[in-house]
Specification:
Helix content of chain A: over 70%
Number of helices of chain B: 8
Strand order of the largest sheet of chain A: 2-3-1-4
Shape of chain B: globular
Number of strands of chain B: 10
Number of domains of chain A: 2
Number of strands of chain A: 4
Strand content of chain B: 15-25%
Oligomer: heterodimer
Largest sheet of chain B: 6 strands, mixed
Number of helices of chain A: 10
Order of helices and strands of chain B: EEEHEEHEHHHEHEHEEH
Largest sheet of chain A: 4 strands, antiparallel
Structural class of chain A: alpha+beta
């Protein structure tokens, strides 16, 4: 294929876009809205997944020991805990370490612990327990409770499970929404291209008559669709980019302990996906129209 | 093979209409000049459309330039059409393009280089006498001139066959004669020419082979040139 021919295709595609100015704008806007919804869904889904991962990697179960626990039995206790099925890792946390950790978590509110300095450390020694999969937490909790020296067991299964459910829901809903919007996008792009095909039916007829190949006839229309898709995708990507950057900044300043995905390289990847998808949607919408309205 | 047309037992039936062509047998040799006559509805246009693959025969065999049109693959049709120039009664020029652009159009869409196009277009315009109108728009020309431009476009790719469907239908006698003279000149350069027309004066003046259609059938196929020798 000659370079000059591509120049010709692009000029013709651009002509088509200009001729249907308003419809072109409408199609590009539809693409933009569809892709923006997709971007929001992705941002939400990816962040929920990220939060779930972060929570899962954190200690899942804390077993507090009897206040009078004798540390000479420490190794035996750890071995017992580790023997429970699905337990991945066990760590012994002394009451001093526990207090230090609490102090750290509280940050500026650490003066709450001033009392502890006066009356002595209220915390017992404890075991941190990690499980291979959150679904096994209840069984492991049961087993830990049956160990004599264990006083109380605390776990975060609820949060993790709820997050997982939420993230599945968002994914399903998002997919459905995106599928619907994609169909709408295909429809409006195919309609726009149909207008161009109609406006140029005379030209197309003569092209066929003088022996232009089908590919030669189709390319300008496909490019027109792809350009409309790309234009919409650019708008969507820009909105997602600046919107998310602003959001990340707000969150990291206001709610520093909420784990969210950092802006980069996530946004770069997201933009790539959006641009590619926009172009494909545009070309596909055009192809759909050509199949129906351009018998070549 | 180039420039020859053969129809063997060709019929064309449109659904829910009487047949457009019935058992047509015609052979046209390379370099021939043939009139296809008959009243409107006799099947002239269908005959032409079959030749440039705008339609497919319902029955029978059509061989153009050595290619069996029943067996031609759709993606090969464009290449066959580059060997066949077609002109119509209504010229079918692109109204928003100049005469130059209209004539260059087949060259552009079949990906000739700019240099080749710049050599070919003036030569063709010269042949049809429109050199001075290269930058005019079709609506700025007379009917005769527009048909010359259409003719120039039809022969731009140097086809072996030229098909003309009522080329003089919209022209006064003087312009009609000029167009026919031009087609004879193109024919003299070796191009096979088939002209569908119901203009008897033209047919009578030219004394060429005439294939006469009536209700889709060939009712006579006569070549006055040949009879002259026989008489």
């Amino acid at each position: 294929m000659r370079l000059r021919t591509w120049g010709y295709y692009l000029r013709e595609a651009w002509k088509g876009i200009r001729v249907n100015g308003l419809m072109s704008l409408a199609s590009a806007s539809t693409v933009a809205i569809s892709l923006l919804v997709l971007a929001l869904t992705l941002i939400l889904a990816v962040n929920l997944q990220h939060m779930t991962d972060v929570l899962e990697s954190q200690v899942q179960i804390v077993a507090y020991l009897q206040p009078d626990f004798d540390r000479q039995w420490k190794d035996e206790l750890i071995a017992k805990a580790r023997a429970i099925p699905h337990v991945e890792r066990v760590a012994f946390v002394t009451k001093e370490e526990g207090l230090a950790r609490l102090r750290e978590q509280l940050g500026s509110d650490a003066e709450l612990l001033a009392a502890a300095d006066e009356v002595g450390n209220p915390l017992p020694d404890a075991l941190d327990v990690w499980v291979d999969d959150p679904s096994h937490i209840p069984g492991v909790v049961q087993a830990l409770r049956s160990i004599e020296s264990v006083d109380a067991v605390d776990y975060k299964q609820d949060v993790v499970q709820r997050l997982t459910t939420l993230s599945d829901g968002v994914r399903t809903l998002g997919l459905a929404l995106v599928a619907m919007l994609s169909a709408a996008t295909l429809f409006i792009i195919s309609n726009t291209i149909r207008l161009t095909v109609f406006a140029r039916r005379r030209e197309v007829a003569i092209m066929k008559l003088v022996g232009a190949t089908n590919g030669f006839i189709r390319w300008p229309f496909l490019l027109e669709g792809a350009i409309l898709g790309l234009a919409g995708a650019l708008a969507a990507a820009a909105a997602a980019w600046f919107g998310y950057e602003w959001f990340v900044q707000r969150v990291t300043q206001g709610l520093p302990f909420v784990p969210i995905i950092r802006a980069q390289p996530f946004l770069a990847r997201l933009s790539e996906v959006l641009l590619l998808l926009g172009m494909l949607l545009g070309a596909a919408g055009s192809a759909l129209s050509l199949r129906r309205f351009l018998r070549v | 093979m180039a420039g020859t047309i053969t129809l063997i037992g060709v019929s064309k039936v449109y659904p829910s209409r009487r047949p457009a062509l019935v058992d047509v047998n015609v052979h046209i040799d390379k370099g021939e000049f043939v009139f296809l006559t008959g009243s409107s509805g006799a099947g002239k246009t269908t005959f032409m459309r079959l030749l440039y693959c705008e339609e497919r025969a319902t029955e029978g065999q059509i061989i153009v330039n050595g290619r069996d049109l029943n067996r031609i693959r759709p993606r090969h049709i464009p290449y066959l059409r580059r060997q066949i120039g077609v002109v119509f009664q209504d010229y079918r020029l692109l109204p928003e393009r100049t005469i130059w652009e209209n004539v260059a159009f087949p060259l552009v869409v079949t990906e000739w280089s700019r240099r080749e196009i710049e050599r070919r277009v003036p030569a063709v315009l010269e042949l049809v006498g429109l050199r001075d109108h290269a930058q005019s728009l079709p609506r700025e020309l007379s009917g005769g001139e527009q048909q010359r431009a259409a003719l120039a476009r039809a022969i731009a790719l140097n086809p072996s066959i030229l098909l003309a469907d009522e080329p003089t239908g919209n022209l006064d006698p003087a312009n009609a004669n000029a167009i026919m003279d031009l087609m004879e000149e193109i024919n003299r350069m070796g191009t096979t020419v088939v002209v569908a027309t119901h203009a008897e004066t033209i047919v009578n003046r030219m004394r060429r082979r005439v294939v006469h259609l009536h209700a889709g059938r060939v009712v006579s196929d006569e070549d006055p040139g040949r009879y002259r020798h026989e008489a």
